[in-house]
Write a sequence for this structure.
């Protein structure tokens, strides 16, 4: 059973705790057959028994997910640091002020005037 095919908790085969205690061999066979069994106490699921292969796959998938998330966080941190470095340059404040002052103004250096689209 792979993690992509794990049934929801509600759909797992169930065994009550007393049956597990008294009929361990049967429960082990059921876990090997289905991959996992929900153990109940007073009709409430308290734990899930997994076969070793399913547990290992879950563990591997979790580690891969954590690694992927860390790589994404590292990439975002690097991009942030690069942008922050630009803002910390000595002339950054002057460049930002110039940008805000030019808002809405067109440069006459060979640029054409904007045109509204045909549907405007």
């Amino acid at each position: 059973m792979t993690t992509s095919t794990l049934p929801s908790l509600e759909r797992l085969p169930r065994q009550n705790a007393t049956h597990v205690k008294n009929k361990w061999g049967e429960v082990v066979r059921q876990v090997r057959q289905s991959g996992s069994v929900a153990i109940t106490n007073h009709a409430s699921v308290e734990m899930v028994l997994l076969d070793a292969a399913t547990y290992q796959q879950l563990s591997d998938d979790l580690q891969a997910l954590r690694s992927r998330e860390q790589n994404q966080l590292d990439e975002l941190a690097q991009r942030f640091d690069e942008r922050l470095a630009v803002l910390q340059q000595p002339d950054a404040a002057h460049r930002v002020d110039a940008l805000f002052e030019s808002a809405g103004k067109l440069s006459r250096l060979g640029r054409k005037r904007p045109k509204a689209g045909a549907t405007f």
User: Anything to note?
Assistant: Residues 66 and 72 are 10 Å apart (CA to CA). The first helix runs from residue 17 to 22.
